[in-house]
Amino acid sequence: MAGEETRMLLLGAVALFEPVNGYQIRRELLSWQVDRWAHTNPGSIYHGLGALAAGGHLRRHDLADGGRTVAVYEMTETGRVELDRLMTAALETVDPYERTAFHVAFSMLPLLDDERAHRALTTRLAGLEASVAELAVDDPVGVPPHARRSVVLWHDLAAAELAWLRETVRLVERGELGGATGWTPPPDDPGWQMEADRSRYRALLGR
Question: Would you tell me the crossing angle of helices 2-17 and 100-107 to the nearest 10 degrees?
Answer without folding.
Answer: 10
